[in-house]
Design a protein that fits this description.
The structure is a single chain. Helix content is 79%, strand content 4%. With 187 residues, the protein is mainly alpha-helical. The relative contact order is 0.14.
Length: 187
């Protein structure tokens, strides 16, 4: 199909370089378009196409669920530590707000510095945690994508599918291979 479009563009360039009247140009372009369309249609009749829903594979597949559980366990302790630090920061700030009117200037400065240091430590740990979680999620997704691509290729070869498309706005259930991909990934 893309080759046909290239031919049509090239023919158009040649015709335009010959300084033809607009009417003759339109006639010749219509003839070229009709030829390209009929060739593309003939090729499409022999082509077997399939679709798979990548988001569904990422949500419902056994490896995706296993990776999610693995990551939850892997980062549970650090997440709890982060929550505890956030609680400590909150209680320290609340205690300072409550005690501030009664504190001397030097005690206020010391407590403000303590709150600032806690806040910086929390933000640093939170940033590190988020970066590590994102990196591990990306690694797990890449692994799942690689496995899914292998499965899709096997299905396409076994069923003699010429073209497999990922996601679509609309497609017939007849050409959807998502269930087959999910089943193969669960093995």
């Amino acid at each position: 199909m893309f080759g046909c479009v290239f031919v049509l563009v090239r023919v158009t360039e040649i015709i335009l370089s010959q300084h033809i009247t607009p009417t003759k140009l339109l006639q010749r372009l219509m003839v070229c378009a009709a030829c390209v369309f009929s060739v593309a249609q003939a090729q499409a009749q022999d082509t077997k196409i399939a679709i798979f829903d990548s988001q569904r594979v990422m949500r419902e597949s056994v490896p995706a669920k296993a990776a999610e559980a693995k990551l939850k366990i892997e980062f549970q302790k650090r997440g709890e530590e982060l929550e505890n630090l956030a609680k400590k920061l909150k209680t320290t700030a609340e205690k300072y707000e409550k005690d501030a009117p009664l504190l001397s200037e030097s005690d206020r400065v010391v407590r403000q510095r303590e709150i600032t240091e806690l806040d910086q430590a929390f933000k640093r740990k939170q940033r590190s945690y988020n970066e590590d979680v994102n990196q591990r999620q990306n690694e797990e997704i890449a692994s799942l994508v690689e496995r899914a691509q292998k499965v899709i290729k096997q299905i396409a070869e076994a069923e003699k599918i010429d073209l497999v498309l990922q996601d679509s706005v609309y497609h017939s259930a007849r050409i959807d291979i998502t269930d087959k991909v999910l089943k193969a990934l669960s093995k």
